[in-house]
Write a structure and sequence with these properties.
The protein is about 50% helix and about 15% strand. By secondary structure, it is an alpha+beta fold. The strands form three sheets. Strands 1, 2, 3, 6, 9, 10, 11 and 12 form an eight-stranded mixed sheet that branches. It has a two-stranded antiparallel ribbon with strand order 4-5. A two-stranded antiparallel sheet has the order 7-8. A hairpin with a 2-residue loop joins strand 2 and strand 3 (about 90). The protein is elongated, with a radius of gyration of 55 Å. Bound molecules: adenosine-5'-triphosphate. GO terms for molecular function: ATP binding; microtubule binding; microtubule motor activity. InterPro entries: Kinesin-like_fam (IPR027640), Kinesin_motor_CS (IPR019821), Kinesin_motor_dom (IPR001752), Kinesin_motor_dom_sf (IPR036961), P-loop_NTPase (IPR027417).
Length: about 600
C-alpha cells in the first residue's frame, strides 16, 4: 500500500492528545486499536519513519510537555512493553519466561517480573519501542503479510514534581498504548494448526473484551475481567479511574463488510461506557530540612482552615437552598415537584451538588410537563363531550319552544273563533278544505267537552265573557253527541286584530264579573246567564278585590301571577288537578305551565 503524502495519523492522534494531558495531571489513560486483521492497527500505533504513529506522537508530546511543566527537569519516565500471545504474557523488552499477572491494591493488575526501563528522552523511547517490536510475534497470513499474532501493550509511567504555592507536589500518571491483534476468520487466515490456534486465542480474548464492554455498558455489578489475560490487563483502562480512547480500524474493502460492521458495533458499545474519574494521583512532597517541614506544616494547616471555611459556606448555601425549596413546596405543588430533590442533595461536593440540582430540576420539570399535557388532553375530551350534550339539549329545547309557541298561537286563535293558523293558511290557499274543517270540528268538540266539564268559576275566571254563547252552546251540544255545523271560515281581510278583540272582550266581560264570583262556588254548574245590572249584589268580589282592579284585567292577565286578580283569575294547582280547565286545552298547558309555576 502506498503511503499518503500527508500524515493522517496526526489527525488520529487528536483523540489521544487529551489523554496525554490527563496523564500529566496525574490520571491514567489508555488508547487501543480495535479492528479486523490487516485493517491497519499496527500501522496506526507505530506508523513508519516518515509518518510516525500514535505511540510515537504520544511519547514525543509527553516528553515535550514534561519539560515544560516539571520543575527543573525533575521528572521520571518508566517504560514497559509486553505482549499477550496465546494467553501468556511475555516481556518484549527483555524476552524470557512467561509472566504471571498479580493483583496489586495500589497499582491494580501488574505483571510480576516485568522490566521497567527508565527513559530520559523521546528518542530513547523510540529505540526501546523498536527493540520491543523486533521481539513481537508476527507471522504472515493470507490476510496480512506482517500480521500481529499477539496483543502488544506499551505502558509509560510518569512521575514528576510541580510547584504549588510554596510547596511541591508529586504527580503520577500512567499511559497505556495497546495494539490489539486483529479479529479473524479461520478461512481468511490459514488452516494450519499453529495459526488457527493463535487465531482461536485472539478471537477468545477479543470475545472476552466484548463481553466486558457489554457488562460495563449494561451497568452490571460483575464484569468478567478474569476471562482472559487481555481483559485482566485492561481492567483499569476499561472500568477503573481511567480516560480511554478506542480507535476503530476498518478496511475499505467490501470483502471485509462483516468485520467492518462488527468493529463499528463494538466501537459504538464502548462509546457508552461511563467511568468515574477519581482524584488525581498527587502527593505533597515532604522537604528534608526541619525549618522547611515546619513551614510546610503551617501552610497545610492554613489550607485546611480555608477548606473548612469553604465547606461551612457551602453547607450554609445548601441550607438556604433547602429552605427556599421547602417554602416553594408549601406555596405550590408544582414547585414542590421541582424543588423536592434539592432537599436530598448531599453536601459533600460542590460540583456534584450543582449537577444533581440541575438534573433533579430538569427531571421534575419534565415530569410536570408530562402530567400537564395529560390533564390538558383529558380536559379537551371532556369539553368536546359536554359541548355535544349541550348542543343536543339546546336543539331539543328550541324544538319544544317552537311547538309551544305554535300551540299557544292556535289556542289564541280558537279563543277568538278563528281557525288554527295552519288550517287558516291551508284554507286561504284553497287546499283540502274538507279535511281542515273536520280537524277544526274535532278540536272544537274536544275543547267544548273540557269546557263543559270544568267548574263555572273556572270558566268565568278564564274569561267567561270571552267565550261567546254560541261557542259554549256548541260545546254543550257536542258533549251531548250533537254535531255542530262547521265554523264559518273568516276571510283574512275581515279578521280583527288581536288588540281590538281584546278590547272588545274586556268590554263584554266587565258587567258579568259579579256573576262570575257567584258561580265560583259550584262545580260542573251550567253555563252562567249574564245577570242584569240591578241584580248585582256588591261591587266587591268575595276575595276582596275591587271591581276597578278587575276592570283593568285583560286577557293576558290570566297568565300573570302578579295581577291583582290572580287569586280569582288563576286556576290554582289544586283546582287544576281536580277539574279539567281551560289550562288543559290543547296547546295551552304545555306553554303556560312553566309560567304559572
Ligand atoms: N494508512 C496506511 N497507509 C499505508 N499503509 C498502511 C496503512 N494502513 C495499513 N497499511 C499497511 O497495511 C498492512 C497491514 O497493516 P497492519 O499490519 O497495520 O494491519 P493490522 O490491523 O495490524 O493487522 P493484524 O491485526 O493482522 O496485525 C501493512 O503492510 C501496513 O503497512
Amino acid at each position: 500500500m502506498r503511503e499518503p503524502f500527508v500524515n493522517f495519523l496526526i489527525y488520529v492522534y487528536c483523540s489521544t492528545a487529551d489523554i496525554v494531558e490527563g496523564v500529566l495531571q496525574g490520571r491514567n489513560g489508555t488508547v487501543f486499536c480495535y479492528g479486523a486483521t490487516g485493517a491497519g492497527k499496527t500501522y496506526t500505533m507505530l506508523g513508519s519513519t516518515q509518518n510516525p504513529g500514535v505511540m510515537v506522537l504520544a511519547l514525543k508530546d509527553l516528553f515535550a510537555k514534561l519539560r515544560q511543566q516539571s520543575r527543573e527537569g525533575d521528572y521520571v519516565v518508566h517504560l514497559s512493553y509486553l505482549e499477550v500471545y496465546n494467553e501468556t504474557v511475555r516481556d518484549l523488552l527483555s524476552p524470557g519466561r512467561p509472566l504471571v499477572l498479580r493483583e496489586d491494591s495500589k497499582q491494580g493488575t501488574v505483571a510480576a517480573g516485568l522490566t521497567h526501563y527508565r527513559a530520559y528522552s523521546a528518542d530513547e523511547v523510540m529505540a526501546l519501542l523498536h527493540q520491543g517490536n523486533q521481539n513481537r510475534t508476527t507471522e504472515p497470513t493470507r490476510a496480512n503479510e506482517t500480521s500481529s499474532r499477539s496483543h502488544a501493550i506499551l505502558q509509560v509511567t510518569v512521575e514528576y514534581k510541580v510547584q504549588r504555592d510554596s510547596h511541591y507536589l508529586r504527580r503520577t500518571g500512567k499511559l497505556s498504548l495497546i495494539d490489539l491483534a486483529g479479529s479473524e476468520r479461520a478461512l481468511a487466515t490459514d488452516q494450519r494448526t499453529i495459526r488457527s490456534l493463535e487465531g482461536a486465542n485472539i478471537n477468545r480474548s477479543l470475545l472476552a473484551l466484548s463481553s466486558c464492554i457489554n457488562s460495563l455498558v449494561e451497568g452490571k455489578r460483575h464484569i468478567p475481567f478474569r476471562n482472559s489475560k487481555l481483559t485482566q490487563l485492561l481492567k483499569d483502562s476499561l472500568g477503573g479511574a481511567c480516560q480511554t480512547a478506542m480507535i476503530a480500524n476498518i478496511s475499505p474493502s467490501n470483502l471485509s463488510f462483516g468485520e467492518t460492521q462488527n468493529t463499528l458495533h463494538w466501537a459504538d458499545r464502548a462509546k457508552q461506557i461511563r467511568t468515574k474519574i477519581t482524584d488525581v494521583n498527587e502527593e505533597v512532597q515532604v522537604p528534608e530540612s526541619d525549618s522547611e517541614q515546619a513551614k510546610l506544616l503551617l501552610e497545610v494547616q492554613k489550607e485546611n482552615q480555608q477548606l473548612r471555611m469553604q465547606i461551612a459556606r457551602l453547607q450554609q448555601k445548601l441550607l438556604s437552598i433547602e429552605s427556599s425549596a421547602i417554602m416553594a413546596a408549601r406555596q405550590s405543588p408544582a414547585a414542590a415537584a421541582i424543588n423536592t430533590p434539592l432537599c436530598w442533595t448531599p453536601a459533600s461536593d460542590t460540583k456534584a451538588i450543582k449537577h444533581d440540582e440541575c438534573r433533579a430540576v430538569e427531571e421534575s420539570l419534565r415530569k410536570r410537563i408530562r402530567v400537564l399535557e395529560k390533564e390538558k388532553e383529558s380536559a379537551c375530551q371532556e369539553m368536546a363531550v359536554r359541548e355535544e350534550e349541550l348542543t343536543s339539549i339546546i336543539s331539543s329545547l328550541q324544538r319544544g319552544h317552537s311547538s309551544q309557541i305554535r300551540n299557544k298561537d292556535d289556542f289564541n286563535r280558537m279563543l277568538y273563533g278563528l281557525k288554527p293558523k295552519a288550517q287558516a293558511d291551508e284554507q286561504e290557499n284553497g287546499n283540502n278544505a274538507f279535511v281542515k274543517r273536520s280537524a277544526f270540528e274535532r278540536q272544537e268538540s274536544s275543547r267544548s267537552a273540557h269546557t263543559a266539564a270544568a267548574g263555572s268559576a273556572r270558566r268565568m275566571t278564564l274569561g267567561g265573557p270571552l267565550l261567546s254563547n254560541s261557542y259554549l252552546s256548541n260545546a254543550k251540544s257536542n258533549q251531548a253527541g250533537v254535531k255542530r255545523p262547521a265554523a264559518p271560515s273568516t276571510p283574512a281581510s275581515t279578521v280583527k286584530t288581536r288588540r281590538s278583540r281584546i278590547l272588545e272582550a274586556e268590554e263584554n266581560r266587565q258587567p258579568q264579573m259579579p256573576q262570575v264570583q257567584r258561580q265560583n262556588s259550584g262545580r260542573n254548574s251550567k253555563i252562567p246567564i249574564p245577570p242584569s245590572a240591578s241584580t248585582l249584589p256588591a261591587p266587591k268580589t268575595p276575595t276582596g278585590i275591587s271591581k276597578e282592579a278587575l276592570k283593568k284585567r285583560t286577557f293576558w292577565d290570566i297568565t300573570n301571577a302578579n295581577s291583582p286578580s290572580a287569586p280569582i283569575g288563576r286556576c290554582t294547582r289544586s283546582n287544576s288537578a281536580a277539574t279539567p280547565s281551560m289550562l288543559l286545552q290543547p296547546g295551552f298547558l304545555g306553554g303556560r305551565r312553566s309560567l304559572l309555576q
